[in-house]
Amino acid sequence: MLRLLPLVFGLSAPAIASELPPPLKEDDFIAFDRKQAALGQLLFYDKILSGNRNIACATCHHPTLGTGDRLSLGIGEGGDGLGLMRIAGTGDSRIKKRIPRNAPGLWNLGAKELHVLFHDGRLSIADTFENGFNSPAEEWLPTGFNSLLAAQAVFPVTAQFEMAGNPKENEIAGAIYDRIDNAWPILAKRVRIIPEYGRLFVEAFDHIDAPEAVTIVEIANALAAFQAIEWQSFDSPFDAYLTGDESALDLAQKRGLDLFYGKAGCSSCHSGKLLSDQKFHALGLPPFGPGRTRSFDPMVRDVGVMGETDRLEDAYRFRTPMLRNVELTAPYGHNGAYPTLEGIIRHHLDPDGMLKAWTPDTAALPQAPWLQAIDFVVWNDAREMARQARFRDIEPLPLSDAEIADLEAFLKSLTGTQSVTAPPFGIPATVPSGLPVDR
To answer: What gap in Å lies between CA 273 and CA 239, rounded to an integer?
Structure first.
């Protein structure tokens, strides 16, 4: 997230250049097995991993939608369709709740230096529970994951409103109601008894001699291998510029780069090779939706990383996103409050002014009249809005319209070329379960 510092004038070109990160290279990524990745491709697009067999990982992270879903807050279990055309369902199958936060893009999640995931950082590499991770599953998380990304993969499938479904609807949702880890063996069996999947697991994993040995760990490791290889991206014009090709950026993009690494102060948070400090910052984005908060908090709001740390000083702070391919991953912010790059840039420059000017119709929310009372309850709560206004990690900074346009041009220079247009695997024609593939 762009952290804006006091104006600094007169920065020379060498001073700015010295702040540029080293080029991102293949060695900066975990090496994953391609057989496992090919298996993970099928699993990623297969709705077999959802409780009611009606939603896949790809539904909310689709390559034609920048690996997101183009919605501010997604429509998970019970919805139908893709992206802006996705509907909230009808009758008994309609959604019970919107996904509380924006579906993040999946670019470069196999990077070695990545150590925290989710908008609130509730999954991180740590030895808190002696299994390698601090996670919502705590001590019940199994061991054997090949990466942070693999550990992440086991949580959407157990989330009621994302993929698991509601209690009494299916065996997955019922098992989760008792304890989160009870669902993973059921999912693993559901996958491995499909003959083609059983065969592919035996072929892809040296330690798997028979389908009966497949667990949620192998499923997660295959999903991680696929995502990490499929959406590895460091071939943008900016990346070419970092390797010495000064012609890779046009004049507007170069001016934007100077602003980003100069007086706009963007690089104070969007730092390093991944363009993220992997820390948490309060931007004062317009709040809406059901949010995520502490288990004992009855309010409809989103407290950010405080929900994980339970520390008041962490309230309303969210993880700094990585920025490669940011042009493709609209809308922006932890809740998708802004549909354009210009909008989110202007918010960083004048958070309170943009908050006052923002209107609910700016949010991309598929119609769900039965949820209207919840959608903007925070927005209409004067006391909660005042509480949120006290937390700001950014200060107003006056930039001209031309400078804002240059910053936007620079952000567009972060868009990959072949990594975006010709990914290694693509969308499979079919999946072993025989369930329909979202296209």
So the answer is: 10
**Distance (Å, whole) CA 89 – CA 75:** 9
Structure tokens at 424: 């290694």
Q: Residue 229: what residue type?
A: I
Structural contact between residues 331 and 364, judged by C-beta atoms closer than 8 angstroms: yes
Angle formed by the axes of helices 183-192 and 171-178, nearest 10°: 150
CA-closest candidate to residue 394, choices 336, 426, 354: 354
Structure-token pair, residue 398? 């006056």
Give the SS3 label for residue 323: coil
CB within 8 Å of 132: residues ≥ 6 apart = 125, 126, 143, 145, 151
* DSSP per-residue letters across 282-297: ---PPP-SS----TT-
Residue whose tokens read 């309060």: 282
Residue 253 CA to residue 407 CA, distance in Å, equals 7
The pLDDT averaged over each successive group of 10 residues in the chain (439 residues) is: 33 49 98 98 98 98 98 97 96 93 98 98 97 97 98 98 95 94 98 98 98 98 99 98 98 98 97 98 98 89 96 97 98 98 98 97 96 94 96 96 98 98 98 97
| Tokens representing residue 169 in the block | 């609807």
- Record the tokens describing residue 96, joined without a space: 């019970």
Q: Among residues 134, 105, 131, 71, which one has the least CA distance to residue 375?
A: 71
The answer for 43, left when phi > 0, alpha when psi is -120 to 50, beta otherwise, is alpha
Token pair in block for residue 231:
């959406």
- Cα–Cα distances in angstroms (integers) from residue 283 to residues 3, 279, 319, 323, in the given order: 9, 13, 11, 16
Radius of gyration of the chain (CA): 22
Distance CA 384, CA 277 (A): 28
Dig out the tokens for 67 from the structure: 């690996």
CA pair distance 220, 146, nearest whole angstrom: 9
Strand, coil or helix: 219: helix
